[in-house]
Amino acid sequence: MAARLEPCFAPPPARLEAAAAYARGSAVRGRRPPIRRATAGPVRCVRRRAGATPRATAAPAAAGSAAAPAAEAAKEPSLLLLRVAAGLPVDRPPVWLMRQAGRYMAAFRAYSEKYPFRLRSETPDIAIELSLQPYRAYGVDATIMFSDILTPLPALGVEFDVVPGKGPVIASPLRDAAAVTAVVATPLEPSEKLPFVGEILRSLRRELEAQPTAVMGFVGAPFTLAAYAVEGQADKHLKATKGMMASADGRAILHDLLAKLATSIGEYAVHQVDSGAHAVQLFDSWAHHLSPADYRVWALPYARTVAEAVRAAHPGVPVFFFANGSAGKLEDIAAVLGDVVDVVSLDWGVGMAAGRERLGRGLVAQGNSDPMVLYAGDDATVRAEVYATCAAAGRGHILNLGHGVMQGTPEAAVGVFCDAARAFQYAEHGL
Q1: 30: left (phi over 0), alpha (psi -120 to 50) or beta
Q2: Sequential pLDDT tens for the chain (431 residues)
Q3: 150-176 burial by CB neighbour count: b if 16+ within 10 A, else e?
Q4: Per-residue DSSP letters for 176-232?
Q5: Helices vs strands, H then E, count in the chain
Q6: CB 217, CB 277: distance < 8 Å
Q7: Coil, strand or helix: which one is 259?
Q8: Which of 242, 284, 338, 345 has its CA at 20 to 30 Å from residue 319's CA atom?
Q9: Considering only CA atoms, which of 145, 168, 186, 359 is closest in space to residue 273?
Q10: Is 401 in a helix, a strand, or coil?
Q11: Burial tier of 90 (Cβ tally within 10 Å: 0-12, 13-18, 19+)
Q12: How would you classify the pairing of strands 343-345 and 57-58?
């Protein structure tokens, strides 16, 4: 087995002290301690997906510059995750985990038990530290920004809070034409209204520039965000949302909201790439609430708008897509999104081999180990799961879970999962 990677670098004490001081003393959201910035240097470029000839790609805009596509470059990506997303040869599958920065880690709990969620996710020093913890611990091939899919909603006038034991709560749900009209009329303006997002990504890109890990941004897919905004909190039946879908007036209001969210989230995703993200993943976390027919109407066209925005602004930047409960929707996902996304993440409810066949080999597959295998914590079972998943996927695959890491998962099991991925060499298995 490949040896566990040692931590690549320690958190700068000044950053942690500044973060703690902010968390103790600031009562005003948006106030934050200054970060000593390194001089922005040239950034690496990435390419696009399996099944297509790798193309030149647009690099992120330099820190402090206007959010605009940078000059094209023709250099092949060196980072393992980006090579797989571009359809280039690699020796082993890259590995990272959804929700890899989470409460299963003691280092993460040192922050989550003291500071509320939005303070952690909107204070750059804290969010950077939480983003980096899994890379230091496990050497993952992607370092995803610590944030939330709802983060852009306050910029559109939709405030939320994260309540312990309940999750995100929106005090004033959007359930009538007037409320949606107000959102439609509100520009996102991420650089001005969400400045911490750009600062987090720029800092991660600088700190990880010499490390073998890609910086990953992410956004919520329009349907999931719309359903959250309408329901006001998690609801396993989506009663308010589906009530709107059942009437002509409600359908018109919901389509207006989805159209606004699609353009705004596309802008937000582009802003993340402009700020330094190597790739962006769309999370359609509530896709499982829709039938395949409804998913074709209420979700996929709007998800495509987001992906098209990234493709237009940064043609070579990989776009990842994850829909929870997608087993009955894979053909539709491939048909509607197959030319604008590079990687489709499968959940654990579909077999990897069958999922790949249904998606087609033109798309890179990501996933899809059952998170509960890691939660159980048996090393041999975790290794067997990694082997089975990677063998079924073959090349053009990124190892991940079929959902996020569960709270209570042993940290050692996550280490075994990542070590087993590094030990899986395609040549040794005839792949």
Answers
A1: left
A2: 343 333 334 444 444 454 444 334 433 323 222 323 232 332 222 223 333 334 333 444 444 443 443 443 357 899 999 999 999 999 999 999 999 999 999 999 999 999 999 999 999 999 999 999 999 999 999 999 999 999 999 999 999 999 888 889 999 999 999 999 999 999 999 999 999 999 999 999 999 999 999 999 999 999 999 999 999 998 889 999 999 999 999 999 999 999 999 999 999 999 999 999 999 999 999 999 999 999 999 999 999 999 999 999 999 999 999 999 999 999 999 999 999 999 999 999 999 999 999 999 899 999 999 999 999 999 999 999 999 999 999 999 999 999 999 999 999 999 999 999 999 999 999 99
A3: bbbbebbebebeeeeeeebebeebbbe
A4: SHHHHHHHHTS---HHHH-HHHHHHHHHHHHHTTTSS-EEEEEEE-HHHHHHHHHHS
A5: 18, 11
A6: yes
A7: helix
A8: 242
A9: 145
A10: strand
A11: middle
A12: unpaired
Q: How long is the chain?
A: 431
Element (H, E) at 47: none
In this structure, what are the phi and psi dihedrals at residue 284, rounded to the nearest 5 degrees? -100, 75
Rounded Cα distance between 374 and 307, Å, is 31
Buried b (16+ CB within 10 A) or exposed e, 241-265: bbebbeeeebeebbbebbbbbbbbb
From CA 365, how far away is CA 352, in angstroms rounded? 8
Residue 56: closest CA among 40, 39, 70, 37:
70
Nearest-Å Rg of the Cα atoms of the chain is 20
The structure tokens listed for 313 are: 């602004």
Number of Cα atoms under 13 Å in the Cβ half of residue 403: 18
Are 332 and 295 in contact by the 8 Å Cβ rule? The answer is: yes
What is the token pair recorded at 25? 């003393």
pTM: 0.85
Tokens 């405030």 -> residue: 159
The amino acid that residue 303 corresponds to is: A
Strand partners, 366: 345, 398
Pairing state between β 214-220 and 142-144: parallel
Which tokens sit at 389? 């998943």
